[in-house]
Design goal:
Layout: E1 2-6, H1 50-63, E2 66-73, H2 82-89, E3 94-99, H3 101-114, E4 118-119, E5 123-124, H4 131-145, E6 149-152, H5 160-171, E7 176-178, H6 180-183, H7 189-198
Parallel strand pairs: 1-2, 1-6, 2-3, 6-7
Antiparallel strand pairs: 4-5
Helix pairs in contact: 1-7, 4-5
Length: 203
């Protein structure tokens, strides 16, 4: 059965949706939810980046599964198409790269502004407000493809894992969620690079 993955986890799309790992409510400058190393929330990779590439292969190897990838374009200002080439290089057959900008602004950003939603009285909810939309589309794709699980790239130390997972459980109770960063022992950039080198994964 295929696994649906938000490698950006962030949700801002990524191959595997784009699995996310970043660090602060307003610091996901790459917009993939996988973070820009300034995001203390939980992401640190961009769409189709190192984390994402490793996660796709890790899912294939660990769960012996077909991976379906999802990258969300919510206006992060980055080219998302390279994620397609990386997914294809990893043997992924079903690749979703969806333009969610209009829905994001209409159904999430505008209502947030109208509610004057500010985190800790200081930060606009740029990264976090996108997670529910990404989770929604992730579950829709899982349903469309018959996936029996979803995965994301959020680390196990921040809030994005909660946002993605609670969003998914609210929309599809009982869905299996795979969080590689909480399962594997690849806990440094060096170990991720070594994993890629051993398996000839392009990064």
């Amino acid at each position: 059965n295929p696994f649906q993955v938000d490698t950006d986890a962030d949700g801002y799309g990524d191959v595997c949706d784009e699995f996310p790992n970043d660090v602060s409510e307003n610091a996901d400058s790459d917009g993939d939810g996988i973070g820009n190393n300034a995001d203390t929330d939980d992401d640190n990779d961009n769409s189709g980046g190192l984390d994402t590439s490793v996660i796709v292969r890790w899912l294939q190897d660990t769960y012996d599964c077909e991976v379906v990838t999802f990258t969300a374009d919510i206006g992060q200002g980055e080219e998302v198409e390279p994620a397609r080439a990386k997914a294809e290089a990893l043997g992924v057959k079903e690749i979703y790269i969806d333009d969610l900008r209009e829905e994001f602004v209409r159904d999430f950003v505008f209502p947030m502004f109208r509610a004057n939603t500010i985190y800790e009285g200081e930060y606009l909810l740029g990264t976090s407000i996108a997670r529910p939309l990404i989770a929604k589309r992730l579950v829709e794709i899982a349903n469309e493809t018959g996936a029996d699980a979803i995965s994301h790239g959020a680390t196990g130390k921040g809030n994005d894992q909660i946002r993605f997972e609670l969003g998914a459980y609210a929309l599809k109770p009982g869905i299996q969620v795979i969080a590689p960063w909480r399962e594997w022992d690849l806990n440094s950039r060096e170990s991720l690079m070594a994993y890629c080198a051993e398996r000839s994964i392009p990064v």
